[in-house]
Write a structure and sequence with these properties.
The protein has no helices and five strands. The chain has strands at 10-14, 27-29, 49-57, 60-63, 67-69. The protein is elongated. By secondary structure, it is mostly beta strands. Strands 1, 2, 3, 4 and 5 form a five-stranded antiparallel beta sheet that branches. The protein is 0% helix and 31% strand.
């Protein structure tokens, strides 16, 4: 299972590129708890969101896999 890291981590975000490079300008937040909510991520069908989590400590750094969040409009069927 997953164990709490106990140190800050960095949430990187892009609304245009699922394969973005994590850079200082892609930093969305540096939470100090074990969860983070991007409240504006859902509800807009025109914008997709892509995230990567990065942890840095004395042993080095590690990055998560990228994940995406999407909101789709419901279209009437035929």
């Amino acid at each position: 299972g997953w164990a709490a890291y106990g140190a800050p981590y960095t949430v990187h975000h892009s609304s245009s590129d699922p394969y973005f490079t994590p850079l200082p300008e892609t930093v969305m937040a540096t939470p100090t708890t074990n969860s983070y909510t991007h409240a504006e991520a859902l509800g807009n069908t025109a914008v997709n969101h892509f995230y990567l989590i990065e942890v840095n400590n004395c042993a080095g750094n590690a990055q998560s896999s990228r994940v995406g969040a999407f909101t789709f409009a419901i279209e009437p069927g035929n």
